[in-house]
Amino acid sequence: MEINFWDKEIETIDKAALKVLQLKRLKETVSCALKTQFYKPRLKKAGINSADDIKHWEDYKKIPLTTKDDLRECYPNGLLAVDMKDVVRLHTSSGTTGTPTVIYHTKNDINHWAELVARSIVATGATNEDVFQNMMSYGMFTGGLGLHYGAEKVGLTVIPMGGGNTKRQIQLMKDFGSTILHITPSYILHIHSKLGESGVELKDLRLRKAYLGAEPYSENTRKKVEQLFKIDVYNSYGLSEMNGPGVGFECAHKCGMHVWEDTYLLEVIDPKTGESLGEDKEGEIVLTNLTRRATPLLRYRTRDIAAIHKGLCGCKRTHRRISRILGRTDDMLIINGVNVYPSQIEEVIMRIPQVGTNYQIYLEKEGTLDKLVVKVEIYSKMFSGNLAEIDALKSRIVEELRASIIIHPAVELHEPGSLPVFEGKAKRVVDNRVKL
Amino acid sequence: MAKELNIFVENRPGRLRSVAGVLSEKKINVRTMTLQDRGEYGLMRMIVDKPEAAHLALADKGFACALKEILAIALKDKPGSFLKLADVFMKHSVNILDAYGFVLQSSKEAVFCVEVKDTLAVKKVLIKEGFKVLEEELYEF
Predict the structure, then answer these.
(1) Least confident of A108-112, A116-120, A193-197
(2) In B, what residues contact A, Cβ < 8 A?
(3) Which residue of B has its CA nearest to A378?
C-alpha cells in the first residue's frame, strides 16, 4: 500500500514533540480565550490569569469544560477573540430553542482548516489527478465548504454541486468522470438506486473513493457501499464547533479516524462523571481547538460517543485514531445528515395556535433516505370548520419547520386527543429507521 | 340562518362510528351529510335536527367541530328548478364556496345547501327572487 502525506513532518511527529507543540499552542489559545467575554471570568475563576498559568502539558485539566449551552449563551459575540475586521467568515448553526451558535474564522483559521482537510484527503490517497464531486451542502453547513477548500488546496478538480438533485449528480459523475465523492451514507445508497433510471451503469463511471460523513453508519454500510460501487469508502468526522470536517479522517488503512492532534487536544470522558477515560473505553469526545484564533473553544464537550483506538496505525501517522461515532449523549437526531433537536420541532409547534401541545416525531426510512413525520393535533377551540384553513395550516407547519430545521418534514394532522398521552416523561420521538 | 355542523375527522376506520355514537346518544337526527376528503383527514358536514346540542355534545367529547351558517334553499323536486336557482346565482354573480343537495320528499321537495361568502346578502337576493330559504323548518321537515 502506497502511503501519501501532505505534511509528513507534522503527521508523523513523535509523541514528545507533539506534547511540546500542544503545550505551546494551548498557551496561545488560552491567552486568546482570555480576550473573550466568556472565558475571561471563567478562566480566572479556575486560577488561570494568563497563559503563564499553563506550565505543563497536564495543566489543560485545570480548564473547565465548555458545553453547547455555553456556546448558545455566547451568541453572538461572547466568544469572539479578534477584531471583526480580521474575521473572514462565520458559520452559524440553528439553535434548539431559537438560540443559534456561531463560529468565527480569521483568514489563518480558514487556511489551517483547509490544511487539515488537505492532510485528510491525501491520507486517503487523493491527488491532483482526482475529480472531486462535493455532494455536501454549501452555505452555513460546514461540510460543503470545509472539504471544498482542502480539496482545492491539494489541487483536485472540485465540482461544487452541493446536496440533492440526484439526476444531475449522476450526469456530472458521468460527464466529468468524478473519482471521489463527498456524501452522506444515506445519499450514496440513494444515488445507487437511481443509477438505472438515469441510464447510467457503473462502467460509465470512474469512481474510486467516497468520503462518507455527517451521519453515523456502521462497518456493514461501508462494506455495502464499497461492494455496490466497487470503491473505497473512508469515514470522516467533524463538527461545526471544531470548524467542521477535517477533525478526524481515515487513512488508506481504514481502521479508525486519525484526529489531528497538533490542532485538537483529544480527550474521552465519562459523560456522567466527567472523569477522563483511557484508550479503548467508550465515552464522550472532548476537544480543544489549539489553532483557531477568532473563536477559541477549550475542552468542548462534543456529545459524540466514541473510543480512542490503542496502538499505532500502519500508515505511521502518530495522531491517534477514534472509532466510529457510536451515539450521542443528548437527544439530537441526525436526519439525512442534518442535525435536528426535538425541541426545535416543539418550538415551531408551540407557536402555532391552531394545533394542540401534544405531538410526536416519527422517523422512517423511505428507500435509503430518512423521512421525518411530525404528527400534531388540531386544537378544537381554534377550529373554524373550514377545510381550506386546515390545508393552509398544514402547509404553514411544513414551511415553518422547514425554515427552522432545514429539512422538509411530512406533517400529519390528527383529531384532538388522538395522539398518545404520556404520564411522566413523554416519548415523543419514535425512530423506526433501520440503522445504516 | 340554517346551521351546518362541521367535524374534523381523521381518515381511518371507526371515526364515523364515534361521531355517530355521540349523536345517537343525544338522540340527534341526521338529515343529510357530506364528506370532504383530503386523504389522511377530512371534514364531515352535517345537517342535523339539533345543531347546537350536537355541537356541544361533540365538542364535549373532544372533537374539533364548528357550526357554520349556510343557505338552505327549498327547491321543487322536478326538472328545471335547479336551473332557476343557477340563473339567479349567475345573474347576481354569486360565487359558491361549497354546496350539496338532498331530497326531502321525493318528487315534491328538495334542499340545496350552499356556502357563500356573504350569506345575508345572498339570502336577501334569493328571497327577492321568490326562493324559500329554510331556517328552523329545515330541521323539522
Answers:
(1) A193-197
(2) 4, 6, 8-10, 15, 36, 38, 40-43, 59, 62-68
(3) B64
In 3D, which of A218, A299, A232 has the Cα closest to residue A266? A299
Closest CA to A135 of A196, A207, A240, A239: A207
Domain range A335-431, its CATH number among 3.40.50.720, 3.30.420.40, 3.40.630.20, 3.30.300.30: 3.30.300.30
B46, B84: one domain = no
C-beta atoms of A378 and B6 within 8 A:
no
Q: A63 and A46 in contact (C-beta within 8 Å)?
A: yes
All 3 cell numbers of residue A232?
473505497
Q: Tell me if residue A249 falls in helix, strand or coil.
A: strand
Q: Do B77 and B24 have their domain in common? A: no
Provide the 8-state DSSP code for A435.
P
Q: pLDDT per residue over A38-66, tens digit each? A: 999 999 999 999 999 999 999 999 999 99
Enter the ipTM.
Answer: 0.82
Q: Which of B69, B89, B111 is the last residue of a domain?
A: B69
Tell me the CATH architecture of domain A8-329.
3-Layer(aba) Sandwich (3.40)
Give the number of domains in chain B.
2
Does any CB of chain B come closer than 8 Å to the CB of residue A330?
no
pLDDT one-digit tens code per residue, A294-311 = 999 999 999 999 999 999
Judged by CB atoms closer than 8 Å, whether chains meet at A383 and B68 is answered as no
Q: How far, in Å, CA of A286 to CA of A72, rounded?
A: 17
A385 interfacial to chain B (CB closer than 8 Å):
yes
Name the residue range of residue B19's domain: 2-69
Grid cell 471544531 in the structure block, residue: A242
